[in-house]
Input
Amino acid sequence: MQEISREQRQLEDQKILSKFLIFKSADFTYLDNAATTQKPECVLQAMNNYYRTQNANPLRGLYKLSIAATDAYEDAREEVRKFLNAESTEEIVFTRNATESLNLVAYSYGRAFIKEGDEIVITIMEHHSNMLPWQQLAKEKGAKLTYIMPEEDGTITEEVFRSYMNPHVKLVAMTQVSNVLGCRNDVKTFARIAHENGAVFVCDGAQSVPHIKVDVQDLDVDFLAFSGHKIYGPMGIGAFYGKKELLDKMPPFLFGGEMIEYVTTEGATWNELPHKFEAGTVNAGGAVGLGEALRYVSSIGMDRIEEREAHLTKLLMEEMKKVPHVHILGSQDPEKHYGIVTFTIDGVHPHDIAAIFDEHNVDIRAGHHCAQPLMKFCGTPSTTRASIGLYNTEEDIYKFIEALKLIRGEMGYNG
Ligand code: PLP
Output
C-alpha cells in the first residue's frame, strides 16, 4: 500500500466527500459503515435514470423497453463479475443480501450434498447470517457442526485450521473479515486445505468485499457472498459467486417464474445459469445501483480504499489507546483491523455509550453485532463498534475521540 502526502489525502477527502450529499444534509460523523454505507450521487442517479428511462420487467419482454431493462440488469451482473474477477457471469447470482446468499447456498447445496454423519466447520466469529443456516442444515441432516476457536485476538493459524480437518468434513464456511474483531482470515490458504480434505469452501465476503481487493479465482473459494448496501450500493440487492460446476449440480432454491425452462402439469425443467437461482421478478433497479457502486469504488481503486481505511484505523486505535478505561477487542495491532474497532469502556453500558456518542452527533453501533457466540467467547454480552468507510477523514476520527473522552464523565465518573 502506497502512503500519500497530507495535501494529497486532503484533496482526495474533498473529492470523495463531494459525491456523498448526505453529509451536506446534516452535521454528523458516520462511523457505522460495517452496518451499512452511505450512497454516492452516481448510484442514486443511476437508479433514478433506470426507473425514468429503462424500467420494464427484465428478462421477459420482447419490446425495446424490456430489452433495455434486461441489458441494464445484465450489465450490472457483468460489473459484479469483473469486480470479483469471476470467470463467467453464469457464476454471479443476484440475491437480496449476504444473508440470502448464504441461506441459498445452505438450502440448495447443503440440502443436496450434506448427509448424515458429515461435518460442517465454521468459526466462532461468524455473523449469525453465516452461522444459523449451517446450524439448521446440520440439525435437519444429522450432520455435525464444529466451531473453530481462534486465538484471543481472532487469529486462526494454519496449524489450528488443519487440526479441524478430517475425512468427515464436507463443508467449511468462514468470514474473510470479522464484523466484530476486524481480523482477516487467510481464506486462500484455508480454501486450499479444505479442498485437499475434500470439502467445499464458502466465504462470507460481507465485510471484505467493500474494503479489500477480492479475487475469487485467486482465493479459489467455491462460494462467496456479499451485500450491495455495505459497498455504497442500495439495500435489497446482494450477490454471490459460485463455481459453475457446483451451481450446475445444485437444485433451485425458490420456484416460480423466470427460473424455469419448460413447465408441464407434472413438473418442470430449469433455466440456465444464473437464472435458475433468480425466481420471480428481479430487483433490476437495485442491481443497476450496485453495478454503479462497483464502478465508483473501482474508479477510486481498492488499493487506495484499503490504504485510506488502514491510515484512519491506525489513527483511531492510537488515539483510543490514550483514553483511560477504553479496551479494544481483538488484536491491538491496527493492521489487523480492516476499519473495524470494537471496544468496551469500564463501567459504561454499550447502549449508554452509543447514546452519548449520538448526543455528540457521532454514529456508532452498540450491541452484540449479530455475533452472540463470539461475544460469549470474548466474555462480554455486548460491545460498541466504530467502523470506517471510504469517505471518512481524520476529522471524523478526532470528533469520535473527543466524544469518547467525555463518556465516563457524562456517566458520573471522575476520570
Ligand atoms: N456477514 C457479515 C460478516 C456481516 O457483517 C453481515 C452484516 O453485518 C452479514 C453477513 C449480513 O449482511 P446482510 O444483513 O446485508 O445480509
Residues 34, 97-99, 127, 129-130, 175, 179, 204, 206-207, 227 surround pyridoxal-5'-phosphate (CB under 6 Å). The mean pLDDT is 97. The chain has 15 helices and 15 strands.
